[in-house]
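Appendix B. One record, verbatim.
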Amino acid sequence: GLSRRPRAMSSAGTEARAWLGQTVAHMGLFPAQVGSYHMAPFTLCSPLVGMAEGALEEFTGKLRGKTGSGRTAGSVALLIRIAESAAEADPARLLVSTTTRDLIARASRGEFPDELTQAATKRRFSYVAKLCVQSVNRLFEASGGHSLFESEAMQRFHRDVHAGSHQAALY
């Protein structure tokens, strides 16, 4: 399954596709039975969740041991940002895992998703993208000017979560 450890977009996407392929093959299903149209967003959303979690880890890691006005782990404003971002990343992960499990369970019973399930699936995966973007944006905005440098992980999380969230399969 998907681990809680944050990953870059490419490795999380590769892990998601491998997990899906193994699960579908183990169940003796063909990808068409699961519905590749419905599973494509899964392979996009999993990396987005990893990016949101990675941004949280990066942001909190930068605060450790810092002192001074407004830039410490004791800053109420920063703690609120962290709490809000975590409150978006956690349900995003849950939506991806429960939606995917539901689709695979339906496929294992030989059921193809009806129109209502298709719409709900698309809505859930689109909402995951929105949650992840909001989570990363909030942290990026408080990361300071240095976070714009290409060498900074927060810049990569911000750039990649936006790129990933703009994929047509999510809308």
